[in-house]
Specification:
With 323 residues, this protein is α+β, with helices and mostly antiparallel strands. It folds into two domains: 43 residues, Uridine Diphospho-n-acetylenolpyruvylglucosamine Reductase, domain 2, CATH 3.30.43.10; 270 residues, Enolase-like, domain 1 (2-Layer Sandwich), CATH 3.30.390.50. The protein is 28% helix and 20% strand. It is built from twelve helices and twelve strands. Helix 5 runs antiparallel to helix 8 and helix 10 runs antiparallel to helix 11. The longest helix is centred in the last third of the chain and has 18 residues. The structure holds iron/sulfur cluster. Iron/sulfur cluster (SF4) binds next to loops.
């Protein structure tokens, strides 16, 4: 591991005034520093910042501090009762020990699990721009079928972010120029020709909290994660659905997928196909087909396309069974 400087910030203003990599739970950054994938000169500990609360938002939604631990968020009474999909997604990720450390802000910023990215013996455009992407013609079973470019086909690994995408979450940030907010769907960037730039955060900018909007009465949600083993494994395909059914018809639906896209993948195409239609398996399948219409398989990951479709259908079936 490369030597680095270490400071602790006590205020958000103090944190963003320092130029360094922020560390909270450390469940991504420290791993990658040990592998020499991340080599910051300066690390700023933000664990003392007052960003560890879950609070009611004025519009009836929920305000979640960036330092709220994944376990605390998953088990928060309001999240379990009203944002079931988020609790389920959080509890499907990592292990209890990791969830006790990992934070809301850090989870959004998880780096990819692409094997080549994590092994400095290989080239990687995300790690070293312009060096190449061995995954495209290599072993690409876990890679993306949606959103990839000729420069990178890595998936985003977060479950929490997939649920938050379906919940239309807003991300709030603060930097030296002030505060701003952005929809989570616009927070992540497609790899394009700059796969090293994964989101809209400017250097030194800090995620301070996220907000979930209030959900209409009767809204149901569900998160389904499909993976190689039942625990402690990343998604090959997952689906987060938030759906409101009225009189047997889908009044409003939000659909996002994990494990298949270069970012947590919301499908507005699938939502458009389903809204106004009868809540039945045939229409759920039509929505799933729309969600994967633009999928581009690589040599080893073509199975993900059907897997993701089935995840979407199944998640909608479960979410609407008592609607
Ligand atoms: Fe690197 Fe992306 Fe290629 Fe993986 S898929 S090797 S992260 S450029």
């Amino acid at each position: 591991m490369q030597p680095f400087g270490f400071t602790q910030a006590k205020t958000v203003d103090g944190a963003v005034a320092q130029s360094g990599r922020f560390v909270a739970g450390g469940t991504t950054l420290i791993d990658l520093m040990k592998l020499d994938v991340e080599t910051p000169r300066q690390v700023v500990d933000i664990n003392l910042l007052p960003l560890d609360r879950v609070e009611a938002a004025p519009d009836g939604g929920l305000k979640i501090g960036a330092l709220v631990r994944n376990s605390d968020l998953a088990n928060h009474p309001d999240v379990k009762a009203r944002y079931t999909v988020l609790s389920e997604a959080l509890l499907s990720g990592a292990s209890p020990q990791l969830r006790n450390m990992a934070t809301t802000g850090g989870n959004l910023l998880q780096r990819t699990r692409c094997y080549y990215f994590r092994d400095t013996n290989y080239a990687c455009n995300k790690r070293q721009p312009g060096s190449g992407c061995p995954a495209i013609d290599g072993f690409n079973r876990v890679h993306a079928v949606l959103g990839g470019s000729e420069n990178c086909v890595a998936t985003h690994p977060s479950d929490m972010a997939v649920a938050m995408m379906a919940l239309e979450t807003l991300v709030h940030m603060q930097g030296t120029k002030g505060e701003r907010q952005i929809a989570l769907d616009d927070f992540y960037l497609a790899p394009g020709s700059t796969p090293d730039k994964e989101n809209v955060l400017e250097p030194g900018e800090l995620i301070t909290y996220v907000t979930l909007p209030a959900l209409a009465a009767g809204t149901k949600s569900y998160y389904l994660k499909l993976r190689d083993r039942a625990q402690y494994e990343f998604a090959l395909a997952s689906a987060a659905v938030v759906v409101q059914v009225d009189g047997g018809r889908v009044k409003r639906v939000r659909i996002a997928m994990g494990g298949v896209g270069t970012k947590p993948w919301r499908s507005k195409e699938a939502e458009a196909v389903l809204e106004g239609k009868a809540a039945n398996e045939q229409n759920f399948r039509a929505a799933a087909e729309a969600a994967l219409r633009d999928a581009k398989p690589l040599r080893y990951n073509g199975f993900k396309i059907e897997l993701a479709k089935r995840a979407v259908v199944r998640a909608l079936m479960v979410a609407t069974q008592n609607a």
